[in-house]
Amino acid sequence: MEMDLMIRVTVPLELTHGALSFYLPCCFQTKSSEKLRKHCLIYFADHLFHISANCSDDYWILLSLLHGKPRPTVTWWREYSLLDDTYLFIPSDNLVRNELKIAELKRHDLLAVLTCQASNNNITVPASTAVTLDLNLKPVDVRIDPTRQPLSAGQEYEFTCMAAGSRPPAVITWWKSNKQLKNPDDKSTQAGDVTTSFYRFTPTVQDNNVHFSCRAHNPVIPGSAESDGWTLEIHCK
Question: What is the largest CA-CA distance in the chain?
Fold first, then answer.
């Protein structure tokens, strides 16, 4: 499943010793291998922590680099489940490194909290910092109601298009063949992850055998459009 990824990072106050750097992916761009790079800064206590984001089409990496005395152990957790405890010591930099590599994100990873813990004694609570995964998801289901029924020329109809599963909310547009229809009276609504759009349509005999559809796309995910529609059958009164 293709999706974009953006990262929210929280740094708790107990992590006041040592240094911590995260290297995070900025996104998964659908149908694109373009490499993006973003940088952001987090101010923590008297230290300045850098977060670098590197885009990858295949996987993403959380890389923690810490130093402490005694040398800390570094682990990655999801809730109470241990994800990775394979850390390495880099003598030249006096750093402990733990690289968490995840090959694919899925919808159930939305708002998952990944925690990096560092400890160099059995007396104090381990220092930790958390990463919350905020996923941009494309719509998974688009439906028009009512659908696939013969229409009468000159009679007004109101159609409803519902798009589910998009985060942020889907943008819905209406189409006849490859021409987008203007919808000045549309009052789209949002309930949970379902976006609903309304369209009033008065067909003419010229609309017979024309394909009528609605499309929903996530505005931050290129190539995410899903659609529902059918070929109109217009009857004369």
Answer: 87
